[in-house]
Design a protein that fits this description.
Elements: H1 2-7, E1 15-18, H2 23-33, E2 38-41, H3 46-51, E3 58-62, E4 68-73, H4 78-86, H5 93-104
Parallel strand pairs: 1-2
Antiparallel strand pairs: 3-4
């Protein structure tokens, strides 16, 4: 995911949602994997429940309005994500930046 996020940073914003219940373990995960994209934490698994996620890894592609376009269980289907994202109009880079700031608050 890290490599995908870095190589497509001009096209997509990648936001990770971790579910570790221990903030120290969560930070160790980020450090160990060299994650530079935005990570949010959900120790309650509320996010998993809302999206029907039952195991990791899982991926969801959202449009600029926050609507889920597609979702996948298992490894990241990079080409499918890119194909889906390139067939839709997306917000400007400025809008994407505002969305990232909102997600991290």
């Amino acid at each position: 995911m890290r490599e995908f996020a870095e190589s497509h940073a001009d096209e997509l914003d990648v936001i990770g949602i971790g579910t570790q219940d221990d903030p120290v373990m969560a930070q160790e995960f980020v450090d160990r994997h060299g994650i530079a994209f935005l990570m949010l934490w959900d120790e309650t698994f509320e996010t998993w429940n809302a999206f029907g996620i039952t195991a990791q890894p899982a991926t969801a592609l959202f449009d600029g309005e926050g609507t889920v376009i597609e979702g996948w269980m298992g490894g990241l289907p990079e080409q499918r994500v890119l194909n889906s994202s390139r067939t839709r109009p997306w917000p400007s880079p400025e809008h994407r930046g505002a969305a990232r700031r909102t997600a991290s608050e």
